[in-house]
Write a structure and sequence with these properties.
The complex is a heterodimer of chains A (839) and B (185). The longest helix of chain A is centred in the N-terminal third of the chain and has 44 residues. With 839 residues, chain A is an alpha+beta fold. Chain A has 24 helices and 22 strands. In chain A, 55% of the residues lie in helices and 17% in strands. Among the domains of chain A are: 151 residues, no CATH class; 144 residues, no CATH class. Chain B has 2 domains: 73 residues, P-loop containing nucleotide triphosphate hydrolases (Rossmann fold); 80 residues, no CATH class. By secondary structure, chain B is an alpha+beta fold. In chain B, strands 2-1-3-4 form a 4-stranded antiparallel beta sheet, covered by helices on one side. The radius of gyration of chain B is 18 Å and the shape is globular. Classes of the chains: A alpha+beta (839), B alpha+beta (185). The complex binds adenosine-5'-diphosphate (ADP) and magnesium ion. Magnesium ion binds next to α1 of chain B. The site of adenosine-5'-diphosphate has 12 residues of chain B, from β2 and α1.
């Protein structure tokens, strides 16, 4: 069927229409390119991580402990062999020369071999060697400039002066986000003994020459030793998780852009094919079977798909470089951008697939054309065949498959498809309703020009529905984003004004011995204590499932590191009343010394991490003591309130009464009236307790803000893709109806209409369209934002009126602009030329 | 075989099931046409001329009765066979010319020949265009031709496959008297 004639015809027939198809194709290209960009970037990143996982970890295996290794552990380390490098890390405050202020840094005392993979970038050359010869350190540039010092100056760490030998430019083993909070300072491991203080994390890194089953090795070590381990596979897994998150996140937007593009292509093909009905009828009279005649347009659709796919592959591959600009410096590796064959092929696949899918509907219409139509125009409506329903089902299936490929989860794919269906359905219903309304009220309008403009919205072959869908969908996306962001920002702002203000300083781990002295210091410097919560660090020892009661104990030895890590707990207090209890009852007090004390647990911790339910009992270890507790209730995880307000509301809340005897520390939050007393206090406390972490909240908030803004940048970037796609669809829709408009104008002109009247007609139409799309989009966006803020983020929705009004205005002006731009010169066209061209 | 029957219509009936009531346009029509014969069907507008023509040419299916075109019963023909028959045997002249607007005059004329993979499509089409006096207009699109010129291109297209039977539905209805004269020759 796809013989030479078909290709020839397809080519000849398309000559006049190519220019008109272009905006639609580019809309589709943008949509597919967005997906290709995400895919290619993910692919490039994954590849890079795969190659560099060793240098991210610093070795094949890392064994860590919060105490110096015991003799048995040293035996283990010896027996493992391979290349080894040791590192000791601790957070402490560093005081730079000529400065009264100090900064919290992460000291890394390393052996010369460290890291076993990759290296540390320093400046000037040779500074690393100088550091290893002792008495000097390497400091990141940002820390140096913040402290206004340079290499050659000195810094005091744990009571000893060090020369700053050079600038630490970067090290893959360092997490970029951690680096923002606690800049790493490198020194020689040999210098460690000369320092005061002892608390630290001890790591040994291994690099094995032979092929090792690291997973099995890790399990073996876990079984018999009390150390933490990490292998390259863990590193890869973490990044894959991050990547999946990123892809899912960006995928949504790319996906919408694609849908928008497909919609455009689908509708322009609808018009294109409708115009070809006559041609098909004639071809059939000349002896072409219906399949053969239709295949001419199938070929055109395939060609369009291939063009879209190839263009999208190229644009997307280039786009992968721009897409992650906002986060690229937070990534630990220099991404090795590659032309990803997978990306290119999937671009081609998605391009052809989506184009064909949306071409099915108009093509099936062409198949139904009867040759009799060459003799006289079709009588009435052709009945809608059942095959159309099949096409709709196919489109839904295609959408679902694409969503599934994007998210990797069936449930999400179904939710997406249904949500998109509902979204389109609502937009379409509103548009149809409005068309009906326009029909009803138009006859009552006195002014002829306005009446004609309104009537244009429902004339045969109108593009109203398409324009409303394209514009409306764009509006929904932008507005939802604006409102969600507004709500998040709003939540932060309201937090600032209420009783729970942000503190200026947080001392998260003040021990009982230090407590009295720290309180005195606070008083001396005239600072206010905002709160002083008791914090207990609990490590899971074992979990008893309720169903198996006391009979069986779930052994935790085989569990992963996550279950062994400690969780923060605090005691019930009045401020925690505001927590939403999801299950069970919250008991603030408990005086029974024998039974298990009922605790409240954060839903995220309970359900996602520990996999426990109300009624389960857990044995926690606190230093050398143990505590038997039972889950009394589970409270909602409030994502946005977690960081500062009730610090422990992220973890476990203990009842007051009997557990106060457990070893604990205090988390003290401070507020100062002025910066001088604040920095004076900061200096004194870090001088006296160099190892006591002190969090500078405004500094941290700045960092959070920074990370947050990077993420918004990416969302914005992707939204831009879909907005551009929307505008392309809009432009195309306007272009398609140009011919009808030209004819109308000429007719009106011959009947004596003035230029002003002609333009009033067009303005009315476009303004109505713009208003309709914007209003519908806004309504849907409100609903979406309400759902997201309410259910997902747990914040109160605020409607940012000004930005919304501006966005709405811009959209309406845009519609009008695109419309008029496309209609320019229409009035000047000589009538005869137009009437002749009428085919 | 100058007097062989090329079209045989037997008790042809066509009823349109339109909404208010059924409309029987043709009731048991029978006639024959031989090669070389010219038949004119005359009647007021709406009397069923186009309907009859559509049925005879196999563009539509009758309610009852049979049509035999070139010895084959149209009613039982598959779609592909019917298309082949149109291509080989039947030529149409339309009231509104029905040139394909997206193709040039030459390309329009070539279509039927190309459909049957005739290698000489282009040269034949050029010759035919020359015959109808439009040899130099081959690269023009229909919109650039007048009604009369369009009709002549249409005729060239009709004859390119040397049809055995020609169906013309009010061929001169849209033309001025002079052009009508020319066409009728
Ligand atoms: N598909 C149809 N449905 C209903 N009525 C039709 C249909 N096609 C034609 N008719 C009616 O059949 C009658 C004959 O039409 P037609 O064959 O076109 O007449 P003519 O060509 O002689 O003017 C007309 O009254 C027309 O309205
Ligand atoms: Mg007729």
């Amino acid at each position: 069927m796809l013989d030479k004639w078909t290709w020839q015809m397809a080519n000849r027939d398309s000559k006049g229409s190519r220019r008109r198809l272009l905006p639609f194709l580019s809309a589709m290209v943008i949509g597919v390119a967005a997906l290709v960009a995400i895919l290619s970037f993910g692919h490039s990143l994954e590849r890079t991580i795969d190659q560099d996982a060793g240098s991210l970890l610093g070795g094949d295996l890392r064994i860590s402990s919060s105490d110096p290794f015991t003799p048995t552990e040293e035996l283990l380390i010896d027996s493992l062999g391979g290349m080894q490098a040791r590192r000791v890390s601790f957070a402490t405050s560093a005081k730079f020369s000529g400065q009264s202020e100090t900064r919290t840094v992460q000291v890394r005392a390393i052996e010369q071999q460290f890291p076993l993979y990759g290296d540390i970038a320093v400046s000037p050359h040779g500074a690393e060697g100088e550091m290893h010869s002792g008495g000097s350190v390497l400091v990141p540039r940002s820390t140096l400039s913040a402290a206004r010092v340079e290499p050659g100056d000195t810094v005091t760490i744990r009571g000893r002066h060090f020369l700053i030998a050079g600038i630490l430019l970067g090290a893959r083993v360092e997490n970029a986000i951690h680096m923002l909070f606690e800049p790493p300072v490198y020194m020689s491991l040999a210098d460690l003994d000369s320092l005061q203080g002892s608390s630290a994390t001890y790591d040994v890194f291994f690099r094995f020459n032979r092929d090792m089953d690291l997973v099995a090795l890790e399990a073996d070590i876990q079984k018999s030793y009390e150390v933490r381990t990490r292998i390259v596979e863990d590193e890869k897994e973490d990044w894959q998780e991050f990547l999946a998150l990123l892809e899912g996140f960006l995928g949504v937007v790319g996906f919408f852009a694609l849908i928008l593009g497909s919609l455009g292509v689908g509708s322009v093909l609808q018009v294109h094919c409708k115009e070809r009905h006559d041609t098909v009828a004639v071809m059939r009279c000349l002896g072409a079977s219906s399949g053969r005649a239709t295949s001419v347009y199938l070929v055109q659709a395939i060609a369009m798909g291939v063009i879209v796919g190839v263009a999208a592959g190229v644009v997307g591959t280039l786009g992968q470089v721009i897409l992650p600009l906002g986060i690229v410096d937070l990534l630990p590796v220099d991404i090795n951008y590659r032309v990803s064959l997978k990306g290119l092929l999937s671009g081609l696949g998605i391009g052809v697939g989506a184009t064909l899918l949306f071409a099915l509907l108009p093509l099936s219409g062409l198949r139904e054309v009867s040759p009799l139509e060459a003799l006289r125009t079709a009588y009435g409506h052709r009945r809608i065949r059942k095959s159309r329903l099949g096409v709709y089902a196919l489109i839904a299936l295609g959408t679902g498959l694409c969503a599934w490929a994007q998210s990797g989860r069936v449930v999400i794919a179904i939710i997406y498809t249904v949500a998109i269906g509902i979204c389109f359905g609502l937009l379409a219903l509103t548009a149809l309703g409005f068309i009906k309304l326009a029909r009803a009220i138009t006859p009552q309008i006195r002014n002829y020009a306005i009446r004609q403009g309104m009537a244009n919205m429902y004339r045969p072959n109108n593009q109203t529905l398409l324009m409303v869908l394209a514009l409306g969908l764009g509006t929904v996306m932008i507005m939802t984003q604006v409102m969600t962001q507004g709500a998040v920002v709003g939540a932060y702002e309201t937090m600032n004004f209420e009783a729970v203000e942000f503190p200026d300083l947080v001392l998260p781990t003040v021990s009982s011995e230090e407590l009295e002295d720290v309180r005195n210091l606070v008083r001396e410097h005239g600072l206010d204590i905002v709160s002083q919560e008791i914090m207990i660090s609990l490590a899971v020892d074992s979990i008893y499932g309720r169903s198996i009661a006391d009979s069986a104990m779930v052994d935790t030895a085989g569990r992963s590191n996550a279950d062994r890590s400690s969780h923060f707990a605090t005691f019930a207090d009045a401020r925690l009343d505001s927590l939403t209890v999801l299950e069970g009852t919250f008991e603030p007090e408990w005086h029974d010394t024998v039974g298990a004390a009922p605790v409240a647990m954060n839903s995220l911790l309970a359900r996602e991490e520990l996999h426990v339910a109300v009624g389960d009992t857990i044995v926690f270890r606190v230093n050398d003591e143990t505590a038997l507790v039972r889950i009394g209730s589970i409270f909602a995880n409030a994502a946005l309130q977690s960081s500062f307000v009730p610090l422990a509301a992220r973890g476990i809340i203990l009842p007051r009464g009997v557990l106060e005897t457990l070893p604990h520390v205090r988390s003290i939050m401070l507020k100062a009236d002025d910066t001088q007393s604040l920095s004076a206090f900061y200096g004194t406390v870090t001088d006296r307790y160099p190892d006591l972490p002190v969090l500078n909240v405004p500094l941290i908030l700045g960092v959070v803000q920074k990370v947050f803004s990077r993420i918004t940048y990416m969302i914005r970037f992707m939204s831009l893709f879909s907005i551009i796609a929307g505008i392309m669809v809009l432009a195309g829709a306007v272009m398609v109806s140009r011919q009808a408009r030209v004819e109308q104008t000429v007719l009106l002109k011959t009947l004596g209409a003035s230029k002003k009247q002609v333009y009033t007609i067009m303005c009315t139409e476009y303004l109505c369209l713009g208003f309709l799309a914007t209003a519908t989009g806004l309504g849907l966006a409100m609903a979406a934002a309400w759902a997201i803020t309410g259910f997902q983020l747990n914040v109160v929705m605020v409607v940012p009126k000004v930005p919304l009004a501006v966005a709405a205005g811009v959209l309406m002006v845009l519609t009008l602009g695109v419309g008029l731009l496309n209609s320019r010169g229409i009035y000047a066209r000589p009538p005869l030329e137009v009437l002749r061209a009428e085919v | 075989m100058p007097d062989s029957v090329i079209l045989r219509v037997d008790r042809l009936t066509k009823t349109y099931k339109s909404v208010p009531r059924c409309l029987t346009v043709l009731n048991e029509v029978s006639f024959e046409a031989r090669e070389g014969e010219a038949i004119a069907i005359v009647g007021p507008s709406g009397s069923g001329k186009t309907t009859l023509l559509g049925l005879c040419a196999g563009l539509d299916t009758p309610t009852s009765g049979t049509v035999e075109l070139g010895g084959t019963n149209l009613v039982r023909l598959t779609e592909n066979a019917r298309a082949a028959l149109h291509n080989e045997l039947v030529g149409f002249v339309f009231q509104t010319f029905k040139l394909i607007p997206t193709l040039t005059a030459l390309e329009n004329v070539m279509v039927p020949a190309e459909l049957r993979r005739n290698r000489k499509a282009r040269s034949r089409a050029l010759a035919l265009l020359e015959d109808v006096g439009l040899g130099d207009r081959g690269h023009h699109y229909p919109a650039q031709l007048t009604g009369g010129e369009q009709q002549r291109v249409g005729l060239a297209r009709t004859f390119i496959n040397r049809p055995g039977i020609l169906f013309a539905d009010e061929p001169t209805g849209n033309l001025d008297a002079d052009t009508s004269e020319t066409i009728e020759h």
